[in-house]
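Title: Prediction job returns without error message
Component: structure pipeline
Severity: low
Priority: P3
Assignee: unassigned

Description:
Job completed but the reporter wants confirmation the result is attached to the right record. Sequence as submitted:
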Amino acid sequence: MRITNTMHHFSQSNPKGPGQRDVPALLRRVADTIEGLGNVEIYDLIMHNETTEDGDWPGLTVYFNYVTDHA
């Protein structure tokens, strides 16, 4: 069996420091990034958390694929 599909992904978090815990800001950043990708289909969003000396540092990984129109 040959697998022919490719899944794209990116991970994003706020800049490390005082605002790193701001989840609404993180969601806005991710939404802006998704809009910048163009015509994509989102398959999954996974939230993760890292603990740093500045406290929790949430991030999101987005799994997507580019949509192509077949005429």
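Comment from assignee: result matches the submitted record. The two ends are 27 Å apart (CA to CA).
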